[in-house]
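user: can you give me the structure for this one chain? tokens are fine.
assistant: on it. calling the predictor now.
[tool input]
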Amino acid sequence: MGHPLPPGDVSYVKLLGQDIILLSSYEAAAELLDRKSAIYSSRPSQIMAGELVGWEQGIGLLPYGEEMKRTRRLLYEAMNGKAMSDLYPLQEREIIKFVQGLLRNPNQLKEHIHQMVGSSLIKLTYGYEVEGVNDPFIVLANEAMAMFSVVTAPGAWIVDTLPFLKHIPWTSFKAKAKEWRALLHALVDRPMKFTRDRIDRGDEMPCLVTRWVERDVKTSTHSKEEAEYNDSLIKWAGASILAAGTDTTASVVATFFALMALHPEVQKRAQTEITQVIGDDRLPKYDDRSSLPYIEAVYREVLRWHAVLPAGLPHLSVATDDDEFRGMRIPKGSVVFAVVQNMHHDPQTYHEPHIFNPERFLGYSRNVERNPESTIFGFGRRRCPGINVARSSVWLAISCVLATYDVGPAVGPDGKPTPPNMKFTNGTISHIEPYECNITPRSAKAVSLIEEAPDVIV
């Protein structure tokens, strides 16, 4: 079969018999994945990641169907706009711990970021209190998501192309899959066991898993099959919150620090806005978001600059026949990628996209460029269910860091600045490569604000 789609914002490639569609503009992705979500909401089978390692039960790779719908209902219930009122105080508490941790040890930036992001999610989901940057559940989530990024990378595993290889013993990929499957099930089972044990002892903490389990007990018909199914659903829903929320959000925050080290003029303007609007007697809180337009612009430009999932996760066409799109043919069974990184650097959408410029998001509505939230969280019925958690976590981190710290390039042994090189890893989830930066309190008053901050921003 020849190429049914011309080059442009929609392109086509056939790789080892698989039809692949690449969407490189918001308009194309919205038209296909949003408006035709009924046939583009499933996931392609991934032998290595899904079947052998087990990620096919997680919300990211779960095929479209009743189980996915039930899982998304649980997640929506946990993280919709109404539920966020319970989560904001948890996030603000962890933000305070974060800025305090940077004061004690600014050289552990990566560890502090992961603790900040993960702690509120673990507390919300399992009622578990994280005990520092090396907490076992934080480490477990980070290791599992690093593995996810590798195991789901397109074209990385020959067994995904030649599925019959899964039946051949003693292959190196099967040994790796066994190791990674154990890691994944540790992520799914251990936090769940912690909460289950507390429920059994009668000293459970309020959390999502406790709520889900107690409701399940009340509504269950108590058949063995139903109990096992619901238990699995709850386990994987909880693990999906922990896994997906920690790694992606941490990547954005790490990129923010590097960008501030490179753009002191942006940092200074943002700090001036915080001082003028909020003052220097308290930290920003999420209720301040609408009052800080330049902070909002910085937040959006950080999201735009580098997409955490550069090509998103693949969508599978489940149409019973070839589909028509803009007068062109998409073969049934095609795998569709929304290439978000291309969308974020499209000169038709963003003026001089290679330049970090928050001002592109300021001004009258007709001049403001597209909010990257419309693309970075996915499309259609696979849009990230944790969008409210992610956006508030990143915004709070950006605003509170700018309120309290100056971020600059590290200084080398020769006394010269060594700015971050802004290189990013490959893989499904992309992270900025290791870098160093200089993090110092803005003033003596900022130090007092950090040290004396209450448990929740008031």
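assistant: here you go. The first helix runs from residue 26 to 34. The longest strand covers residues 405-411.
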